[in-house]
Target: FAD-binding PCMH-type domain-containing protein
Amino acid sequence: MALVVLFAAGFSYYLGTKSPRDLDPASTLPLALSRELKHNNDKSNLEAAWSDFVAIVGKENVSTVEDDLHTHANSDWSSYRNQESQKPFMVVYPGSTEDVSEIMKICHARRIPVVGYSGGTSLEGHFTPTRGGICVDFRRMDKIIQLHKDDMDVVVQPAVGWELLNEELAKDNLFFPPDPGPGAQIGGMIGTGCSGTNAYRYGTMREWVLSLTVVLADGTIVKTRQRPRKSSAGYDLTKLFIGSEGTLGLVTEATLKLTTKPANTSVAVCSFGTIRQAADCVSRVVGRGIPVAAVEILDDEQMKCINEAGTTSRTWTEAPTLFFKFSGTEHGVKEQISIVKDLAKKAGSVGFEFAKTQEEQDELWSARKEALWSTMAVAKPGDKVWTGDVAVPMSRLPQLIEETKDDMKRSGMYGTIVGHVGDGNFHSTSEIVPHPVDILTRPVILLSNENQRHDAEELVHRMVKRAVELEGTVTVSSYIYAPGIDLD
Ligand SMILES: Cc1cc2nc3c(=O)[nH]c(=O)nc-3n(C[C@H](O)[C@H](O)[C@H](O)COP(=O)(O)OP(=O)(O)OC[C@H]3O[C@@H](n4cnc5c(N)ncnc54)[C@H](O)[C@@H]3O)c2cc1C
Ligand SMILES: *[C@@H]1O[C@H](CO)[C@@H](O)[C@H](O)[C@H]1NC(C)=O
Ligand SMILES: *[C@@H]1O[C@H](CO)[C@@H](O)[C@H](O)[C@H]1NC(C)=O
Model:
């Protein structure tokens, strides 16, 4: 009997191996079934890694100085407050792609978490190491490697800043449009998939990166593609990395698309009695398909702050204000200004001023540039700032801003509002069509104590809810402990 059973079992097993098993019905691996990440932040492990890093980049390029750890954990302008434990154990400064690869191999083998750091201007704790480990700061990798004038592209290292890059490019009449915070650098701009005031006309970072060299978590070096602009081959790995905040790999080299520097540019500033009138003006300009380069809206409180901070050379009307940037041929710019001036008047503008020289342009735009800093400047010592972003369709903007301002007042909080007409719709400069735009509203709220922090959180939650009800999107985390945003 036993023999028969054994034989039957053995035979069934044999048959089982003959017929193929059913395929797993799931085509993806649910997170719940994936293995949990395990890090090793033991002091002895990190100290041993220190010696490994020193062997690669030298003692002078690894820092455990308290000040460095602090500045690589947070910034005054970030809305995320890191805890004392959320700082890197050390900061490593690689000098090349190979250095980064060697560093990542060590971190991989030792299970050490890694966070990349470029300009450190991101606003929501993007570079705060919430899981301990190390920070890889790219500041030594700040070279423009090669400019291909004829192909209109440039190969750069991650710590090249967009401002400096444009200074260099201007010598050859070339231009790289994405313009996020002053001090931001290519590595971080790729990390956040940034936008900027020029996004209205030129699109966001996603449109301006041709290829990337990336070091993956295990140290593997990949290049996403070659230089040609037109290629339909394969997966778009480049875009996958843009906006991934360093979670998929560290960018060590980028080939960027360039365009020609606009022959002429100008700036106009225009104030209104109400936010509604200002929004109406934007709708008219967009509706007519005027190819303005940028439109920014600042509320009366923001204008007041700029005056109080006194960092610009003039005194501004403390009313809802639109800032326009124009670019094109000399004739084109003149024409755009005159049309916009006319449309502004129809919408009820109370003042319209435009720049005739480069100096006047810089002066007029300075108020927009100083917006965040001026709100911080009127803060009392110890105050914290909280920024938050939501985007709504243009027509819903007045309601969103008015209700949010009322809400701020009711909650006894002080804040200013900057809106960004930056839909990220990309237009080649030769083909500009009218299109519905979204407008991003970013309140900057001042907090003087921890209680207010909770109130601010509630306020931001309500704003997010309001925006969603107005068919908007939340491009920033409303919740204080949730990093990960898109600042379009
Ligand atoms: C006054 C002000 C105005 C701003 N205006 C805008 C705006 O209009 N639009 C906008 O989009 N943003 C704006 N920002 C936010 C900020 O400037 C952008 O998010 C910018 O892209 C961040 O670049 P960074 O070099 O400072 O990056 P960091 O802060 O250093 O890093 C940002 C993220 O990228 C990752 N990272 C850094 N380097 C690398 C790398 N080499 N490889 C992979 N990942 C990396 C980091 O880990 C982090 O997650 C503003 C900020 C300020 C202070
Ligand atoms: C450390 O960085 C400095 C500055 O970039 C560089 O000159 C030096 O060679 C680096 N040290 C090593 C060992 O690579
Ligand atoms: C506009 O173009 C004209 C002619 O090319 C030039 O003289 C002038 O300096 C330009 N102005 C600006 C603000 O770029």
